[in-house]
Each structure stands twice: as structure tokens, then as C-alpha cells.
Design brief:
- The protein is mainly alpha-helical.
- The protein has a single domain, classed as Rhomboid-like fold (Up-down Bundle), CATH 1.20.1540.
- The protein contains eight helices and two strands, in the order ααααααααββ.
- A two-stranded antiparallel ribbon has the order 1-2.
- A hairpin with a 5-residue loop joins β1 and β2.
Amino acid sequence: METEKRKLLLSTRLPILFIAILWVIKLGEIATSYHLSFLGVYPLRLSGLIGILTSPLIHGSVKHLFANSVPLFILGSCLFYFYKGISIKVISLIYILTGLLVWLGGKEAYHIGASGVVYGLASFLFFSGIFRKDVRLMAITLFVAFIYGSLIWGIFPEFFPNQNVSTESHFWGLVVGIVLSFYYRKQGPQKKKYNWEYEEDEEENENFPESKLTITYSNKGIPEGISAEDNE
């Protein structure tokens, strides 16, 4: 029990630290009246490349940041709890690849916010349970579908008319999460084989016993034929 409690607490450390950094930046913007939107990703502009690293740290408003903080904490903690061995690699690739793809294929505007990371985490957790066919991880799949299923509408610009919403970040985060969940399906937690599955394997072996074969030789040492070993 203590081990599980410690594991749970450890899984929340980095998500909390990351969210704290986001709030420090936003509060700093408010206190100084200095906006950092220029640090967002600006597609196909060299100066916009810096946004691959900085855009998830910048948010347009407190409301925008709060909307991302809750799922970042929940989904981030799930990633570090259930996929500890590959969590750093997964979150790093979601962070970088989503920004890079937005830079390559986003509309001409500054794209800011951690929404792409949220979508990447949600899709990774959702599809990992499916690709691994693990009952335990499928529970996380259902949890994500139930709590964050509505995120899917965020990839369609039609649902956000006249709003400054980076649906490209949502879309590419979703895609990156799916690709990574498939790529890492053989790493991290794997499907457990239960006793009843082992028993089925044993029954199959009993139904199909291996044939024992012997070779009889003539006096010259040349094989004369093959016969089943049933002499006794």
C-alpha cells in the first residue's frame, strides 16, 4: 500500500512542476503587462521555430491556462504512473513533434498554449490500451474517452468560428499521440498472461502430442524407413 501511494505521489511531481512553471510565466505577464505571444510557433518562419520549445509555456489568458492545467495534471500523472519507463520519451516527443508539425502545417498566426500536449497525452493514453490489448490499460482508455472524449471536436475549425483557437495544435497533438502509442506498444507495461490462458495452452499440447519417430538401419547402415515408436 505504501509503495503504491509513493508511486502515485511520484507520478504527480513533474506534471505539478510543469504546471507551476506555466502559472509563474502567466502571472509574470500579468504583473508586468508584457505579453509573450511572440514566442509562439509561427509556421514556416525561421523566427517562429523557437516556438516549438516555448509555445506550450505561453497562454493567452488565465482562462486558457486553467483549461489546460487540469487535463495536464490528470493525463500527465496517468502517463508517469502507468508508463513510467517510457514516460519521459513520450512526453518529450509529444512536446517537440507537435510544435514542429504545427510549424510545418499551421495557419499563418502565432500558435500558443499547451493544448497540443494535452491532445497528445490523451490520444497516447487512449490508443495505448487498445494497441496493447491489456485489460488494465483499457480501463485508462475508457477513462480518457469518458472524461475527455469531447476533445475530438477541438480538431475541427468549424466548431470555433471567429475564435483564435489553434485547431492545428489539437490535430497534430492527436496524430503524434496515436503514432507514439503504436510505436511504443512493445515497450512499457505489457499484457499479462493469466492462469486460465496457460491452462488452455497445456490442453492444446495434450490434444496434439508430438510424434516420436525412429529410423531403422540395414546392416549396411543405410536407412530403410521411418516407423512410429510404438514397440513395447
